[in-house]
Design brief:
Strand content: 35-45%
CATH architecture of the largest domain: 6 Propeller
Largest sheet: 5 strands, mixed
Structural class: mainly beta
Number of strands: 33
Strand order of the largest sheet: 29-30-33-31-32
Number of helices: 5
Subcellular location: Cell outer membrane
Protein name: Flagellar motor protein MotB
Distance between the termini: 69 Å
Main location: membrane
Keywords: Cell outer membrane, Cell projection, Cilium, Flagellum, Membrane
Shape: elongated
Number of domains: 3
């Protein structure tokens, strides 16, 4: 845990260790933390980054070093170098007492009080560090320095005695511990299947990197892996912690652009790994160090900092976050006409493929949904007669309204070729009784014909309308021709050239089904409009 620089500082200044300011300097050196100074990762362009944090101190801070660790059974677990007893042993590097784990009460306003020693069994006159627990609370992972070497930390597992609750036993080191590198800051994912930690083990990108290891159903462990994405840098990344819903990973880094020293960052978990790393901004981060971000609920939690206004070297703070209400609005539009499509089913899904909501577009094709920051959303629109449309977009935490339209293409009708003819296959077109007015429910069918003609710009069609055998021949002849012309007019209004369509009325002269006393179903089949591809059409797609 301690750097070579820290050892050198200690060796050259141990005779002066009684001076408080020197203690702070030594602590800064051995942890690699800054002390309210701008380091070379400083970026003056970082503002609030869309985050709005209100920061308050907690009631458990001391003049020593206090760090937040995790939540456990409605309590807050911290580790601190606060003095226990009159003869507390001191860490020779920091000059402060060895750190111990403490259990703290959480008040209704999320302040902390009554720090009690977490476990006498674990108190071995060594530095205890970050701890994490399984959901049932009966297994813990914690870090402590190697006995006799306060510069190097290792990871251990312990089990709670099911009878003597509160007593931890079966303390065993993890198999991937080593005396040549440190393992720090363990954190269990919400499902208890992934253990995150920080380490400077060989193969790291920089100093300390964030790693993970899978915990199998039988309790065995998979291989150690660096976290996906570009989280790890040539410097240090520490203190991994997932959000309550498991969607985000928070971590501290002095390698990503920040305000100086260690800043806290968040990144979104996706199927492809962690993406969209973002600094939590200047309402939480400072030119000092901010580490150990612990979200207790969606918009409140704790973090640790050595900012100058604190009581000790490091102190524990609580935060509340206010967020901008965000929404996506848009229209469903026809690809060919640009006109809005009412009554379209629009579904919104998030980064993980979970459905957020589903609505029907209104009479103007409009829709809207509430959205969250740092998500990759997909809008899916479905309407009869149209191909399904998709639009993907990312959210930030600064934009109030995202404008996203979804464009739908009409499904083309099928072109069928037989020995006798080539024709466009469609459902029957319906007209009002004794009229050439096309019924609204037939516009979907005609739109498919329109799409086919658009995709085959050289195609010409004969539009042949037929009636049933009710009524006299001359009337049916006039009605069928009027219906053929009405069909041409509809397609021409959508942009199909009139010289590509030849309307013809056949009345009752060419029934599909020959019958004298026809059933209603037979009459319906005989009333039809056919689209016959003309021989001079040079190409069919």
């Amino acid at each position: 845990m301690y750097s070579p620089k820290a050892v050198q500082v200690y060796q050259t200044s141990q005779k002066m260790i009684k001076y408080p300011l020197l203690l702070v300097a030594i602590l800064v050196a051995f942890t690699g933390f800054s002390q309210n100074g701008k380091t070379d990762n400083f970026n003056s362009n970082i503002d609030d980054n869309g985050f709005r944090f209100e920061i308050l101190t907690t009631g458990i801070n001391t003049s020593y070093s206090d760090y937040g660790s995790c939540l456990f059974r409605d309590k807050f677990i911290s580790y601190s170098s606060r003095k226990i007893g009159a003869f507390a042993r001191q860490d020779p590097i920091t000059g402060e007492p060895f750190t111990n784990l403490f259990c703290n009460d959480i008040l209704p306003d999320w302040d902390l009080e009554r720090p009690l020693l977490f476990s006498y069994v674990l108190n071995k006159n060594e530095n205890l560090g970050t701890v994490t627990f399984t959901e049932d609370g009966f297994t813990m992972y914690f870090t402590t320095n190697l006995k006799g070497n306060t510069q190097l930390f290792q990871l251990f597992m312990a089990k709670m005695d099911p009878v003597k609750l509160g007593r931890w036993e079966n303390i065993t080191p993890m198999s991937f511990n080593s005396e040549s590198y440190s393992i720090e800051n363990p954190h269990l994912s919400n499902d208890g299947r992934t253990l995150y930690f920080a380490s400077d083990m060989p193969g790291s990108v920089g100093g300390f990197d964030i790693y993970k290891i899978k915990i199998m159903e039988d309790g065995t462990f998979g291989p150690v892996e660096a976290v996906e994405g570009n989280i790890n840098t040539v410097k240090d990344e520490k203190f991994p912690h997932t959000s309550p819903d498991g969607k985000f990973l928070y971590f501290a880094s002095n390698g990503h652009p920040g305000l100086g020293g260690f800043d806290i960052f968040k990144t979104r978990k996706t199927r492809e790994g962690y993406k969209h790393i973002v600094n939590l901004g200047n309402t939480l981060n400072s030119t000092a160090d901010e580490v150990a971000f612990i979200p207790a609920e969606e918009r409140l939690g704790y973090f640790t900092s050595n900012r100058s206004e604190g009581e000790g070297s490091f102190d524990i703070y609580r935060y509340t976050e206010s967020r901008l209400e965000q929404q996506v609005t848009g229209k469903v539009l026809d690809f060919d006409t640009g006109l809005p499509l009412a009554g379209t089913s629009v579904q919104l899904t998030d980064t993980d493929g979970n459905e957020v909501g589903s609505v029907l577009s209104d009479s103007e094709g409009n829709f809207q949904f509430q959205v969250l920051p740092f998500e990759n959303y997909t809008l899916t629109a479905e309407k009869d007669g149209f191909q399904t449309g998709f639009t993907m977009f990312d959210t930030d935490n600064k934009t109030e309204i995202f404008q996203q339209d979804v464009i739908l293409k009409i499904i083309a009708a099928e072109i069928v070729t037989t020995e006798e003819k080539t024709y466009i296959k469609i459902e029957n077109i319906q007209f009002d009784f004794d009229s050439a007015v096309i019924k609204p429910n037939s516009t979907i069918t005609l739109n498919k014909v329109y799409r086919t003609l658009r995709e085959n710009p050289e195609m010409k069609v004969a539009i042949n309308a037929h009636t049933d055998n009710r009524g006299n021949d001359s009337y049916n002849q006039r009605l069928s021709l009027a219906r053929a012309k009405s069909t041409v007019d509809y397609l021409a209004a959508k942009g199909i050239a009139g010289d590509r369509m030849i309307p013809s009325g056949f009345g009752e002269s060419s029934p599909l089904i020959e019958c004298t006393r026809c059933t209603e179903e037979e009459h319906e089949l005989n009333r039809r409009v056919e689209f016959i591809v003309m021989d001079e059409s040079p190409q069919i797609n």
